[in-house]
Known about the structure:
Structural class of chain A: mainly alpha
Radius of gyration of chain A: 21 Å
Oligomer: homodimer
Amino acid sequence: MTVTDDLDLNLLLADTEEEILRVVANRDASTVGVYEMVRYHLGLDGSAGPRGKRMRPLLGLLAYASIAGDHQASLPGAAAVELGHNFSLVHDDIEDGDIERRHRPTLWAVHGIPQAINTGDLIFSLSRVALHRLSDLGFSDTKVLRLMRLYDETCVMLCEGQYIDIATSAQGEPMTVDLYFDMIGRKTAALISASIEAGALLATDDEDVIGHYRRFGWSLGLAFQLNDDLLGIWGVELQTGKVPTDIVRHKQTLPVLYAFEHATPADHARLTAIYKTDEPTDAEVAEVVAILERAGAADFTRSEAQRHRDQCLVELDGLSVIGPKAHEKLTGIIRSVISA
Amino acid sequence: MTVTDDLDLNLLLADTEEEILRVVANRDASTVGVYEMVRYHLGLDGSAGPRGKRMRPLLGLLAYASIAGDHQASLPGAAAVELGHNFSLVHDDIEDGDIERRHRPTLWAVHGIPQAINTGDLIFSLSRVALHRLSDLGFSDTKVLRLMRLYDETCVMLCEGQYIDIATSAQGEPMTVDLYFDMIGRKTAALISASIEAGALLATDDEDVIGHYRRFGWSLGLAFQLNDDLLGIWGVELQTGKVPTDIVRHKQTLPVLYAFEHATPADHARLTAIYKTDEPTDAEVAEVVAILERAGAADFTRSEAQRHRDQCLVELDGLSVIGPKAHEKLTGIIRSVISA
């Protein structure tokens, strides 16, 4: 790979995948099978299918390059966050009982729950191994250790968020809007924020700058999740590659939770009743959408997404270290986050 | 806790549990439930039941204290390996379908598979968080980072070993004795060896000394596992708190695998037939035991256990840094490993 200063996203993507492949390569004859499973889940098994957006590593590389001018040295960090994200996906798929991801059977659907749990654990372990290459690339021990502490605390938050998700899904009652924001902060914003903060702290010692990137990442993560919530109900197949199924699947996303708190008593009762129906009909799904819209849930969710998106732009504009090309690229990504 | 130079194992145990409790304490109101699950699994929820032997942390503390004279500064490492071991137990219990551990229901049996997978992930994450306190205690960044690299590579090995275990259990054919040694090296010896090596490398920069401890730990891990294999077939309830059930459960441990390779054709056929029976009778279990003994499996396993145990003693005797009290304590532990 050549050094780049034009921040070509396809090049960043190719470099990230090469870095990941280095970490998930076969190690010896008796364990080839588990590394094959790792690469299958990552979409790095040579199949032509879609692989995931690699949003987190790309953001980390861009954050680093926006200060340092080039992305190369931050590739181990990018590989680590993508592996960390994917370990959680492997386990989430088991926890949610999902049998398909990116148009392919999930790992547990192919190899069973025991191997999938263990392969997720291996991906988690390998995500740490990835980070150690930062030392080989010349980063100081202090820097690498600080990055690891950030990553370790982020993993704790991921699990805490997932705990809230599983616990509230198992309850009969919808969670509060406040708890929902608490949950998505841990489940989604934390890792996106950590990716971006990691890129920044590898590039600079300026704590003020690092803080801007961290807050930028946190707001971006929330905006991203809320946009996903909108797409899950009002999205069209073209945008997401899937029909909006959040209501059919009884997912507790912000629009639904907001409606539970703000609908009229009659709408609240219907919403409760339909959310207890195992397989709602198309008419019932349409009725829920109408209830959400009457309660102002779509407007609220969109305005919250926009508010966090705008906060990203504020944080970005507060940074003097970013070159014009990187600023343009990051602004473009931020604007593209809200598609719904 | 007071400083100790007499290496009282009960004191080491109490200090280790205090260190672990610091890491697994509640963090905030919305996540109390998951930390309660963590403490339940660890036996640190205030219940009076048995908690696990804490063998790994104790060995690490002893290794450190045998050079440094005191164990205090190595407590974060001890907490990390115990948490790492326990994350794997939480996941193993799901993978093996075990509903009981230490006379209590396993985590997944109480809270379901989704929460148990996620709680295991949290314990894994917390094991890394534990290590960062080494920095607060004054260890250099270089030292802490080296310890983390050792720990990360060890976790990879644990998962590789577990992969081999699950993959071979799913097959109809018994694995080879060679593959079995490969597997238990990764599954059992790696973490025990890493615990001891970690204790040593926190206490000294002498690579020769660190190497002795590492090899001592590896041999001890193998001896420990082989002793466990013996107990699983020839143990008595008094020693293990459980009746020997390895044959009933069709576990592929060394004695059985050795018999598959060395039994007479007639015995081999009977062994194969009984190992395919869902619920072998007491008479069939007794028949298997007789077949193993005729094939020399008990003698072979015991002599292998002794060979590795003796290797521990050789490594230990090669060390000039160990004080007499620590030497005595470690020798006692090594000798006690073979009880079968």
